[in-house]
Design a protein that fits this description.
The complex is a heterodimer. In chain A, strand 4 and strand 5 form a beta hairpin. Chain A is built from no helices and eleven strands. Helices cover 0% and strands 50% of the residues of chain A. In chain A, the strands form two sheets. In chain A, strands 2, 4, 5, 6, 9, 10 and 11 form a seven-stranded mixed beta sheet that branches. By secondary structure, chain A is mostly beta strands. The radius of gyration of chain B is 14 Å and the shape is globular. The model of chain B has no long low-confidence stretch (mean pLDDT 93). Classes of the chains: A mainly beta, B mainly beta. Chains A and B meet through strand 4, strand 5, strand 9 and strand 10 of A and strand 5 and strand 10 of B.
């Protein structure tokens, strides 16, 4: 079965640079969620989109922005990167229109800020 | 205090034994509850979801939910070394938030041969 696709899988950036993470949800899933997981921590919710509109917002820094496109893929844009942004970034998708909020996670993007 | 709390670990059980993982949550508006398994450096993998009070069984896994006590548990029967991982309990937020997951801190399970 098709799963959530994330790219790139690994990303190394310098401080103050920008990064763009991409997420392709499972086909026919209309809702995308972004989570950040620091070393030894549990995943923290950042932001979610339903039918291309922002649905909910969590502890996402103002330096980060995200959107969902017409084909339902989503991008997380991160600017003025800081050392503390180094983490695993997961995207998850769910078929909200089908009445379920069960989320399936992608493989993640490991971001390292030097 | 975290909104979702898991019993302190790590938990070590012998192969073939039952592993019991527990979780409590504070948001009475939470409607959906999930157990994910996460291997080091990998993404969370959905094991079970439960919405209604009572038990739900899927193969070697049984999830239990008690909304009155705000308690969720996961039993793993016939534990295998491949079950060794971090188990994350998660709950959806109540109110107007839809689907936003709040995770517990995770319980590290080790199944030794």
């Amino acid at each position: 079965a098709a799963g959530v696709i994330q790219s790139p899988r690994h990303l190394i950036k310098e401080k103050r640079e920008t990064a763009t993470l991409k997420c392709y949800p499972i086909p026919r899933h209309d809702t995308v969620y972004w989570y950040q997981q620091g070393p030894g921590q549990d995943p923290q919710f950042l932001i979610s989109f339903y039918e291309k509109m922002q649905s909910d917002k969590g502890s996402i820094p103002d330096r980060f922005s995200a959107q969902q496109f017409s084909d339902y893929h989503s991008e997380l844009n991160m600017s003025s990167l800081e050392l503390g942004d180094s983490a695993l970034y997961f995207c998850a998708s769910s078929p909200r229109t089908s009445g379920t909020d069960t989320q399936y996670f992608g493989p993640g993007t490991r971001l390292t800020v030097l | 205090q975290k909104e979702v709390e898991q019993n302190s670990g790590p938990l070590s059980v012998p192969e073939g034994a039952i592993a019991s993982l527990n979780c409590t949550y504070s948001d009475r508006g939470s409607q959906s509850f999930f157990w994910y398994r996460q291997y080091s450096g990998k993404s969370p993998e959905l094991i079970m979801f439960i919405y209604s009070n009572g038990d739900k069984e899927d193969g070697r896994f049984t999830a239990q939910l008690n909304k009155a006590s705000q308690y969720v548990s996961l039993l793993i029967r016939d534990s295998q070394p491949s079950d060794s991982a971090t188990y994350l309990c998660a709950a959806t937020a109540g109110g107007t938030s839809y689907g936003k997951l709040t995770f517990g801190q995770g319980t590290i399970l080790t199944v030794h041969p």
